[in-house]
């Protein structure tokens, strides 16, 4: 035999042996593993939850470096300002034009003005005249915060005003809290 022929027989037998051994090993591996498992369905909710947990852990790790926010001493549900210093806006109103302090009473007047209730919205709707034997008696129809109220001289309106006079085109009211008199013309 020639050397070329001998080389081809040795290489051919080596290849055949390798092929046979690899087929046997593959068959043994398939027998031990069993049938192939069906592809598992990926649960999108579980994967989203896992991703969210990962991102949350990363954010907590990053926020651990920052200081905690300061708690405010201000209570928006409490209107007593005696415990707290005078707010900046109120401090500015207590100073005069030259920047000097007006005094302690000026601050109390500002606080009293802030507490005083707002005047109700009043409007004269009409005036009626009732002819009696002793003379005409006038009554007025007022709109008080959207409600219609009929009043005569001496009646109280909205718990704050007293009707002093009703003329043919104006109703005069006195403020019971000491404010200026109110004149309501008919429109």
Kindly describe this structure.
With 187 residues, the protein is an alpha+beta fold. Among the domains are: 83-116, no CATH class; 122-185, SH3 type barrels (Roll). Helix content is 37%, strand content 24%. The chain has helices spanning 3-33, 44-63, 88-93, 104-115, and strands spanning 122-132, 135-144, 147-151, 156-157, 161-166, 170-175, 182-185. The strands form 2 sheets. It has a 4-stranded antiparallel β-sheet with strand order 4-5-6-7, with no helix packed on it. A 3-stranded antiparallel β-sheet has the order 1-2-3, with no helix packed on it. β4 and β5 (161-166) form a beta hairpin. The longest helix has 31 residues, at 3-33. The protein is rod-shaped and about 160 Å long.
Q: Helices and strands, in N-to-C order?
A: HHHHEEEEEEE
* Assembly of the depicted chains: single chain
> How many strands in all?
7
CATH T-level topology of one domain:
SH3 type barrels
Number of helical regions? 4
Using the coordinates above, name the CATH class of one domain.
Mainly Beta
Q: How much is the average pLDDT? A: 76
As laid out across the biggest beta sheet, the strand order is 4-5-6-7
- Helix and strand composition category: alpha+beta
**How would you sum up the major sheet?**
4 strands, antiparallel
- Bin the helical content: 25-40%
What is the rounded Rg?
48 Å
Strand content: 15-25%
The CATH architecture classification of one domain is Roll
Distance between the termini: 135 Å
Low-confidence stretches: 88-104
Instruction: Describe the global form.
Output: rod-shaped
């Amino acid at each position: 035999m020639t050397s070329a022929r001998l080389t081809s027989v040795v290489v051919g037998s080596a290849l055949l042996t390798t092929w046979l051994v690899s087929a046997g090993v593959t068959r043994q591996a398939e027998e031990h593993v069993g049938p192939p498992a069906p592809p598992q369905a990926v649960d999108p909710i579980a994967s989203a939850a896992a991703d969210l947990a990962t991102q949350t852990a990363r954010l907590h790790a990053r926020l651990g470096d920052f200081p905690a926010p300061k708690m405010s001493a201000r209570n928006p549900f409490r209107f007593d300002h005696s415990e707290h210093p005078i707010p900046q806006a109120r401090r500015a109103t207590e100073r005069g034009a030259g920047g000097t302090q007006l005094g302690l009473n000026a601050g109390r007047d500002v606080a009293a003005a802030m507490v005083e209730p707002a005047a109700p919205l009043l409007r004269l709707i009409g005036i009626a005249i009732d002819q009696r034997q002793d003379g005409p008696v006038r009554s007025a129809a007022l709109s008080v915060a959207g409600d219609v109220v009929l009043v005569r001289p001496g009646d109280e309106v909205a718990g704050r005003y007293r009707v002093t006079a009703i003329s043919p085109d104006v109703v005069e009211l006195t403020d019971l809290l000491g404010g200026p008199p109110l004149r309501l013309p008919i429109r």
